[in-house]
Write a structure and sequence with these properties.
Number of domains: 2
Strand content: over 45%
CATH class of the largest domain: Mainly Beta
Structural class: mainly beta
CATH architecture of the largest domain: Beta Barrel
Shape: rod-shaped
Strand order of the largest sheet: 6-5-1-2-3-4-8-7
Number of helices: 2
Radius of gyration: 45 Å
Length: 394
């Protein structure tokens, strides 16, 4: 029984000794001790953490206040004050005066962060303040490039078309159903690239930025306009064959016109995040646009057929008719709003309006008799659209 008690007491003693040995003990000159974990020692101070709170603040003590440090591994560092040097008398020596050199300018001392003194367990220690740098949390807080794709739905007269009037059949090639206030466009697509440059950041989720944008929009003619125009050409072919008592005209459209708008804009945007992944944005932009209408091509399947003889000249039916439309410089205005679903994905709706322009161009007719040109003037067009875009931000 006595042997068991001796063994138990020995184990308890060894456990306590092991726990004590795991600590660094700082012995001060006033014989007091600090149970700690030493972090760093330099020529003037010792940095340590309290053993009972090793995840807490780092404390600093002057090295002149410390006699020794007993480390957990058994090693000991001792710190002793250096004795003052005793001046040594030397015989006076008379020397000729030497010219004094100008003192070199001393560099200005760097400003150190102000230290704070705290009292913990009746011990006065100096705590070094930690300077924290603001960390960006949202993607819009930095310069950002984005790419978005979406639909382009024509609005107002841009999506409407006029019924063709057969009372003026010889003017059909100059009156294709669009112009005169009508665009006859259908749903298209939109490609947008932009550069976001932040200029103000509240650091609370509100960001104001400048936008540089490139926007491309494509719209084709609506199906109703295509069907109506081809039906109009069928009636025109029958009327001309009947008028000349020939079978020399059968017009077919081989290529319908399409609209493209290429815009360069500059604007501002405002973004506010409710939480880190979710935010809202609004923007407005203004710039210049290049509006283009592709060619209209009409082929006569019975072209180059003899029609009539007049004044010693044989007349034949035309073969092809091509309408070449001009390009136009317009202004463009755009406004949009949407959601940031995550930091790099957005979903937005945009209203785009282009300034009106007159549809002009040249109609070229080719046939056996040669080449003929006439001017096209089809009135004005006002283009505007509504786009839904999905954006990716880098």
């Amino acid at each position: 029984m006595k042997a068991f008690r001796f063994l138990l007491l020995s184990l308890i003693f060894l456990g306590v000794a092991k726990i004590a040995a795991a600590q660094d003990v700082i012995v001060k000159k006033d014989s007091s001790t600090i149970l700690s974990k030493v972090v760093e020692i330099n020529s003037t101070e010792i940095k340590y953490k309290k053993w009972s709170n090793q995840d807490g603040p780092t404390y600093v003590i002057n090295i002149n206040e410390v006699t020794s440090i007993n480390y957990a591994n058994g090693e000991v560092d001792r710190f002793e004050s250096q004795p003052a040097e005793t001046p040594v008398e030397t015989p006076a020596v008379t020397e000729e005066p030497q010219p004094q050199a100008e003192p070199e300018p001393q560099p200005e001392p760097q400003q150190q962060p102000q230290q704070e003194t705290v009292v913990v367990d009746n011990q006065t220690t100096t705590v070094q303040p930690v300077q924290q740098k603001y960390q960006r949390r949202f993607s819009r807080e930095r310069v950002q490039f984005s790419l978005s794709l979406g639909t382009a739905m024509p609005l107002g007269s841009f999506g409407e078309y006029s019924s063709l009037d057969f009372s003026a059949p010889l003017d059909v090639f100059n009156n294709t159903g669009f112009g005169n206030g009508y665009g006859a466009a259908k749903m298209g697509y939109n490609v947008n690239m932009q550069l976001h440059i932040p200029v103000f950041n509240s650091k609370k989720g509100s960001i104001l930025g400048i936008l540089l944008k490139f926007n491309f929009q494509y719209n084709a003619l609506c199906d109703n306009e295509k069907e109506d125009f081809q039906e109009y050409l069928d009636d025109l072919s029958w009327a001309m064959n009947y008028a000349y008592n020939v079978n020399a005209y059968k017009y077919r459209v081989t290529k319908f016109p399409t609209y493209t708008n290429t815009a360069f804009m500059m604007g501002i945007d405002f973004t506010h995040y409710f939480a880190k992944p979710i935010g809202i944005f609004v923007e407005t932009d203004f710039g210049l646009n290049i509006a283009s209408i592709s060619n209209l091509e009409i082929n006569n399947e019975y072209g180059n057929t003899f029609v009539y003889y007049y004044d010693y000249v044989n007349y034949y039916s035309d073969k092809t008719n091509t309408a070449q439309y001009d390009s136009y410089f317009t202004t463009v205005f755009e406004a949009g709003a949407g959601l940031f679903l995550v930091n790099h994905i957005s979903l937005g709706v945009y209203y785009t309006r282009y300034s009106p322009f007159d549809v002009t161009g040249t109609m070229t007719t080719e046939g056996t008799y040669g080449h003929d040109e006439s001017l096209i003037y089809a009135g004005d067009i006002q283009m505007s659209s509504l786009s839904f875009r999905l954006g990716v931000h880098f």
